[in-house]
Amino acid sequence: MKIKRVIFICNYAANYGGNFLASLKNLAVYLKKKKINVKYIFPMGATTKEWNIELNQDQVHYMNMDKRSLRNYLKKELAKGDIVHTHFLSHRQLLGIKEAVNSKKEVKVICQEHMDLDPRHNKIFELLKRISFRIIFKKFTFIGVSSSVYQRLKAIYGSKNTYLVENAISYKRLDKKSINLFKDKKKHLIIMGTDYERKGVDIAIKAIQKENKIKSNIELDVVSNFVNDTKEKIISQFGKNVLSFVNVMPTDNNVQDFYKNAIAFLSPSRHEAFGYANVEAAYCGAQVIASNVPGQNTLKKIPYIIWIQPENGSSLTVAIKSVLSKSQIQLEKEAQANKDYIMKHYSLNSWTKKIYKVYLKASLL
Known about the structure:
The chain is α/β, with parallel strands linked by helices and 365 residues long. The chain is 42% helix and 18% strand. It contains 14 helices and 13 strands. The chain has helices at residues 18-33, 67-77, 91-101, 123-136, 147-157, 171-174, 201-209, 212-217, 227-238, 256-259, 276-283, 313-324, 328-345, 348-363; strands spanning 5-10, 37-43, 60-63, 82-87, 108-113, 141-144, 162-164, 187-192, 218-224, 246-250, 264-267, 287-291, 305-308. The protein has a seven-stranded parallel β-sheet, with helices on both faces. Strands 10-9-8-11-12-13 form a six-stranded parallel β-sheet, with helices on both faces. Helix 1 packs across helix 14, helix 2 packs parallel to helix 3 (91-101) and helix 7 (201-209) crosses helix 12. The protein is elongated and about 65 Å long. The model has no long low-confidence stretch (mean pLDDT 90).
């Protein structure tokens, strides 16, 4: 099949474009050089988002993302030579795409999975998925963004049409001049808090709360899309007094402002698919403390990430103390080593070429 167009179907309406949209834009530019057209499809909720990445609006379509809407739209839209490349879609949504593709010739579907399909390891559910999904989606191609996601995809769909392409990060975005958001002399620790439980915000607070020496010298900054909701969760669990060392801040497109002005980024997550923020923070020079969980531990080759036991506040406390005890010379040495490694292994251009190779393989099926 000759590839004529790629349609990105993205159930994505986050407040910031981040590495995800930067990666797609880089891929679109590469495809244009290959004389391959591109179209983006986003949910209606994305119409109000002010992403800092310019997409050609002539190529963007907003729509309801339910199964029926996807099926009906694609039945009219799809043409010979199209590749449908999906992101963040549920299996029900994929069924809508399958129903549309069934009546089309020379149309391929590539599903990029960004999350662990079974983070709680429900073996019965996984067994049912393996039996049914391998049959239903046997003509689809799958991409996992980390080794753990890739292994799970292989277990469910088989290895024949399943590929590993680790995520990339946009250096250009992170290299922008940063503004120091923190006006005090405290040392700052950053943690993502929109997905409060999964990101382990409670684990981080407990690890700091019991250590008066740490608590008096640092501030834990919880970055969230929903500041009021996150603050209410924290107060409900720990009481108002915890706000003496915990600050909830809104998400910002300029994430480098957080990373470059913090001594460490905390990721005591309960489960992850990849861990974009860990790579970003390490690239920006912050120390990174991360839980040794599948998906996140894909990043173990980055030289100076500090790994802690999952669900273990004491392990996190020890790691924070270790960071605070390091000299400036040591911090700078480790920061440079991390940046050098990340620049070599997580570039947008490298990711783009790997994705294009998957396109070529899928087009031959």
